[in-house]
Structure formats: structure tokens, C-alpha cells
Amino acid sequence: MFIPAVFRGLLMKKQNFLLAMVLCCLSFPVYAETTADAEKNIRHTLQQLAPDETITRIRTTPFGNMYEVLLGPSVIYMSGDGRFILKGDLFDMQEHQNISENERALARRAIFASLSSNEYIEFSPEIREHIIYVFTDVDCGYCRKLHHDMPVLNKNGLAVRYLAYPRGGIDSTAYSKLEAVWCADDRQQAMTDAKNGKNVVSKQCSNPVANEYELGQKFGVRGTPAIYKANGEALSGYIPPDDLLDIVKN
What we know:
10 strands; globular; 10 helices; alpha+beta; four-stranded antiparallel sheet; disordered N terminus; Nuclear Transport Factor 2, Chain: A; Glutaredoxin; four-stranded mixed sheet
């Protein structure tokens, strides 16, 4: 059975845990807000706190007056009066699922599907069976190792779509290198050259590097390569090619 680590200590004292849950439910206040009222309150609060954030969806949860709020690829929970905000993962212990991560995956899937071909750099086989999206830097060792695996991945029907993620941020050398790659006439060759430590001629053009760095931050990227399946499921960092192919195909 899947049990998040945060709950394991509590479950060791099963009786106390169950009693606490019963008391929690008995003491949970009853609110009069309708769903429409709650949505209005939540939007009002978020407009004040984060006016630039786009609210993708607001929906009810099993907890009465607690609502799930989707902000792009991020999930938070808010009370119907807009007063309380909870940031964390919601687990369904009966279904053995991380509900919050499932919602984030759906949001990521929609974002990937909306990307145009000029926003990513794709290394694809002749017959494409599966796709992964990878936030990448050109200087990180494991990014280079993954790129070295490209012939094996492509040979087995796996296409790799790179998104830019300069680990040093917008003003870093890594940012300038990725910008040069995205502005190159042959972006695939430029990516390969950069990951082999070669200089790529710097050019200026309209490019998605800054937007993709910001997107990666919203996704919660903490290091590169950050790998995602096309369905939005997050994988770990570097994965050896045979293992990666097994994960993607299954």
C-alpha cells in the first residue's frame, strides 16, 4: 500500500490517528457559501495576492469548504471564504493516488500540447512512437549524458523535445548559450555542439528561452535534465536509456 512518509508516524499510532480524524470531522465548521460565492471570494483574494496569475480552474474537494485551485501547472487549496490557503499535496489513501500531482500532470499535458514547433528543439526518429519533454541546460553533465544517449533513444522510437532551462537564471552565461542555440540556423546541430563544449555563434532573435525558464520554475524544476512524459507525468533527472525506454513505453 502506498503511504506518504509524512503519514507513516501517525499510522503507527492507529487509534490516536483515527480519533484525531473523527474529532477533526466533528469540529469542522459549517459554511454557508455556495460554490459561486466561494469562487468569487477565491478570485478576489488571488487578485489581490497575485494579480498576474491565471486561474485555470476552481473546483470542490471532499473537504466541504475547501476548494482546489489550479494556477497554470500549480495546485493550491483555499477555503470558500478566501481566507485560508494551503499549499501541499492531497493524497487519496483509498485509491493510493496523489490527487494534487495528478492535477498538475493534466495541466502540464495541456501546456505541452499547446507548444508550437519553434518553441522546442526536437530530436526525432523517422517513426515516432513516444515523446518526452526535457528542460535542459547545455553545461550540466547529466544533460550532456542524456544527449549522448540520443541515438539509442531515437532508434527505439523515442522523440526528445528540449525546452530551455538555464540553471543560472536569465542573466547567466547559460542563458546566453541557450539563446544562441535557439537562434541558430540549424538548432539541432547547435544544441549538439553546445553540449559537446563547442562555441555556438551568438545571434539575436525572438526566442522562448526566458518564457521556458519561467515555465520550468512554475513546474517546480530544481535541476536539469527535468524529464516529463507527453501525458504530463514527471520523471526523475537523468535515467539510463534502457530504463527510460521501459518507463516511457509502459
